[in-house]
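User: For a reading group we're discussing how well predicted structures match intuition. Take Dihydrodipicolinate synthase family protein. Before you show the prediction, I'll give you the sequence so everyone sees exactly what went in.
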Amino acid sequence: MIFKRRYRKLQTQRTVTGLERLVAWHKQDKALNNNKPMNWTRRKFLNAGIMTTLGGVWLSSGFEKLSFFTTENKLPGGFWPVMMTPYKEDLTIDYDGLKRLIRWYEDSGATGLFANCGSSEMYDLNNQERIALTKFVVENSKLPVVSTGTFSDQIGENIDFIKKIHATGVQAVVLIPSVMVRKDENNMALLHSFENIMKETGDIPLGIYECPSPYKRLIGPDILDQLQKTGRFLYFKDTTCDAELVAQKIAIASNSDLGIYNAHSPDVLHSIRHGGAGMSCIAGNFYPELFSYLWRNGRHKEASASVKKVNDFILSNKSVIGKKYAIGAKYFMNLRGLDLRVNSRKNVSALDDGDKARLDTLWKGLTALGKEVDIDIVNYN
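Assistant: Thanks. Here is the predicted 3D structure of Dihydrodipicolinate synthase family protein, as structure tokens, for the group to look at:
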């Protein structure tokens, strides 16, 4: 891929070693403190806004990012599906079904893939499955892929697994704040976890997903600003569900490689019109073409009548797709000819006749909308 080649080229341009940086900082500390080395307590360290990593420097002011971080690292903008995981009858991963799913995302206009995510039932997979699943997606898709790398509140375990996920060939390894620290821990602990991960993972590109499980932990604008200054972060799946707050984050990331991908489908049109990098929402597992269409046609100052119709369809069916999502999406995919087993490792009740009737009606509505606004709705039947 072009992206991979560019990134490897950038890696070879590094001329400053980690040791040289530490020496430079030590000299500067002495100069700023009358030739006395500053006593770097952890609080002073974080308040000064300085973070060292093998791939960058965390700074609030007075310094510049290292030159090998450029906008060439940006991920493609557009629709990034949060991938489902197809299973066989015995609930092992169905790789033939996964290959069909990848093709469907690609045919529907996706610009990247988020594998091993919440919709993938990542917490119900073991580490070997997470790695194998990610590797399969990377090797069987023409699109860039990101995948989750944090499943422990132990920093060392996360560092080890991040390296393993990166070795599969992904463009970025995604970090989950609500896994990295416990709910009762403050943002200082979270920053400490970010710091140690960046320090021990070299130049591995990273992402962030504000996953609502095991609990919802949002990244505020202030923390996001510090993280994006490191140059290490490329992907941010936002679950704020607050259009104005998302717009603030987009503004913060606007001059960096970090892309803000909105997970809240009612706000995606607002976010992409304010410079957002795209969308990564569960509704894309029902009608990915609609989000690809909004990306291509919905970023203008004034929304066209067709864009409004597409957005209204998404808004009006939010409750339909949210019910029994883990299996409802697979049932809907089968209406489109993907031939997947409608099952899940989650403890979810089976679809009843009413659930199926609502999804059947949704499919009819989607095909009618496609004809009305001239969107090619992918159907393998």
